[in-house]
């Protein structure tokens, strides 16, 4: 017998992983949560049937959502993570000694619980003394915060289900206000390969540009995500991700990474023409 | 009824495209040749059941195998393409007015014939007056050439079937001799995501390094290839792909591209740490 997990990236493209064992399956208050043990990518967490993280390639996403911002401003003290229940983003953040406080606001406690149990290499820093894990709605949480966070990382699902409100102008406005005057916001910005995804990414990018003086897009190769290529928005009040990037400073921290490096940092902002054009035109 | 084409990227990872119609299928003297019409990627050419090109994402591969070299040396006159029977590489080469002669040596005439018939947007320049299409074994063809080609592009399948001899030190030695003293050789260098592929890529890279003083690796996002991420070797007798890269010169040519641009050129040589380490260690 063979057991395969399949995700339809579009109605006409399917990505499948051979499964050793379907370890966990439950419906939380917010979404369906599953853990599979796969042959090629180790443990896999899916939410509503879509790949969130695998043990083998999670380092790409977590390196790129965290280190890109941290390397631009080495005075980041207070960080807010919206979502990120698997803990990978938090794990990378606490590697910086100058980070004082990480508030991780995850709406779905079940995601944190299964990650603690089945994904220990990812969730391993959730009990770090600088980390506060809050089971709350990030949209509500950020509303009354003002001029406090140096960095906000929106480590969310796509805008279906609980992630929906994390792509609105109201939410971005509240994030803007929650940030200090040197604040940076990063959010995952979908794949440009398939239009259904990139429509969401383009919209998110346009909304952030209405507020933040600096919004740049960068990309990374994530083999288990649709198209194998994923984008992020770098939205910032003061620092430009290239011009204000101090590579010597970051390299002096001696943080060992498997994906990120300072050359790649610069390279990741060099987008293919079809991506740049779609972002500029606003059409997919 | 639903018809799906599936490729196993490893024994445990499968990529599938929904098919409108299986248009062509035949066994040539060298390999199995198929054309499918897919919903998401348009026409798809497979050789021995593996994706070679699709109409929708072929521009990535062909941009990156051609323009990266052409932008480093703007005096390239004589080009040899080994393989490349679909014609996409030739199509990009003849966009340069200073290219005088392109010899395309494709062992399998059936690949050229089906591309002419079913992939006209890719094969459209095979009858260009500067192009010689030769149905010969590239390994033999290159043996007695000396100091003639400014650029050799090895646009081959993986080293299974007819592509096998294109990954040997003998073949690379003959290519080296066939190149002028400013010669550049580019070959596709597999995905670093799956070890079975990257073993081949690392070997090819090591062999080229024994001969060429400059060998650098660059990458591109090709969604229908394993891992969605593909590497190329840039092997060169004289020109460094970054230090000798004249972006103003290339931009002045006004060649419109959908993937390649001069920022991306530089960015594509910035590799993730896990790729750099595997290339340096020689182990996967």
From TrEMBL, chains A, B:
GO terms for molecular function: spermidine synthase activity. The active site is at residue 155. Gene3D superfamilies: Spermidine synthase, tetramerisation domain, Vaccinia Virus protein VP39. GO terms for biological process: spermidine biosynthetic process. Residues 2-237 form the PABS domain. S-methyl-5'-thioadenosine binds at residues 31, 106, 137-138, 162. Spermidine binds at residues 62, 86, 155-158. Belongs to the spermidine/spermine synthase family. Catalyzes the irreversible transfer of a propylamine group from the amino donor S-adenosylmethioninamine (decarboxy-AdoMet) to putrescine (1,4-diaminobutane) to yield spermidine. PANTHER family: SPERMIDINE SYNTHASE, SPERMIDINE/SPERMINE SYNTHASE. Homodimer or homotetramer. This is Polyamine aminopropyltransferase.
